[in-house]
């Protein structure tokens, strides 16, 4: 379906503007992902595309070139190399990280000034989704739901009782035209214990909170103003100057003063309590690539025996081994008689763990930080 | 005990000359040990000395500066750096490897010409032995036994039913002065199955064949001539030229023509059949550092939690891990939740295996060789 056909004059699709927050180091993917080369700049699926590029390509059929990217100044060059289509007016550079409330709030405020009827959709730069057409169908439903006056989260049908994600408790069907699967949201719930996660699965009323949402920018700003007036005022000041020669001066002055808060607390949860949040469950495959065990799940093209190999020009020899090897060097890597191992080989740091312990990589990074070994972080 | 005191005019100790065959890549210790940097040039015990240097230092109290080193031409510079005391006349360089028969036979022939009463002692450059004084006591007994007209192997009291070593079946006590523990040798037996190894231990009659022996050079050459006349003739020709200006010319012409055979088959086994071999059991600790599991046994000074770390300036972080890390780089190595792992990190090759599978490293090297990846071998 082409953009022209999908977005008729009457369709809310023509007001859709994608926002890609490209932040987060991805500490659990150290030493591959790190401050200088965060997760979204890596090809973690063996597709040949970085996660950022794949995110853009997935959104382009919906948004055309209406894609705003929010990232750190340090990643400007890398992001522009990945996304040469993104012009300066579509690139929001953070001089310092201020959490998702400021990043997404500023995007909303800028887009509101360009078109107050904008429906924004925010999609993290470092998730893996397939197939694209199912994702796009779900986002289209979310856009139609947003046009009916909702902040719309995209939920993911749980495939197992994960304790690593927050959940969304779904309510009644909303019966919105062109959005047959849109439901009310009863509440957002934090990451549960395994017992509770199992109960969530049994009820069938819960979906994973994948952090993706679609909403009218006006409604976003209304809730932001009501719940975070200081943050809102600062973002308004920056947004007023954004498309003027004063952008740099105002941003440099105001951005560092903004409070740090996640968009979930700044907007989504209070809006849910006010009955303004809906959910469209997605049936596409979704993975936030939270650790190296995910790399094993997401890749098999490069398998050598039972070992998943990621990395261009990797030279991996295995005998009676299984697991994941991420090679960021040209070194020969030999695995002998070792099972479910995770090996990440980079020029200055080597990680060896197991799929089972992959979540604990963050602890190692914290320990390195504490010991002053920040050169490899 | 100083050499002067130990070696009275009457003592055979004054005719003792140590020989150190420094060969063998140590394939099971790849990628640390390799053609360009074989096992004997590494410090595998964290002592600060290479195995070669430690071997020399262990022999010096017995041999003084009468230590002949046999090694490959490729290792000349490295060996001289490790053993600056060894002059040119004490260095035998092999232009190509010809197995231990030629290496030790040539040493015997050279030493015979310098002193026909020489008692040679051959000790591999890449074994780990402690304590030195127990080793030296055993060698002294072996020298006295050799002086009585025997080729004397030094056996090691088995500590477990190893299937990785050959065994020596001991016979009657020989009742030699100054060698109260010298026994006859009944036979040499090949590496046994585990069941047979257990039976060997039960009888108490078997010791490990550690490949160390002490013998009159005249007796060595007599058996060599009888069993390997072609090899013997070639070695005689080279030895005749050795301390003359013709050394290089003759060696270059004859050495490549010599048959390849182990000293065990060329001399020790036929001599044993002739009743000419004795054994002195050693009670010192001996390890041939056959694989990386041995590195764990031999080291603990550098332990980080339950991980044995070998390598100057190693930067190893562990959480809930155990095993051995050999670091030949300055990279940070993080181990998380992995047990009994063996990691060998070198600039161009990385090995990850387990202590249990450490013996199978040789198979990986063979596979790399077969696939043409010889740059890292």
From TrEMBL, chains A, B:
Keyword vocabulary terms for this entry: Nucleotidyltransferase, Transferase
Domain annotation MannoseP isomerase/GMP-like beta-helix: ranges: 321-368
Pfam families, A to Z: ManC_GMP_beta-helix (PF22640), NTP_transferase (PF00483)
Domain Nucleotidyl transferase: 18-299
GO molecular function: nucleotidyltransferase activity
InterPro entries: GMPP_N, ManC/GMP-like_b-helix, Mannose-6P_isomerase_type2, NTP_transferase_dom, Nucleotide-diphossugar_trans
Name assigned to this protein: Mannose-1-phosphate guanylyltransferase
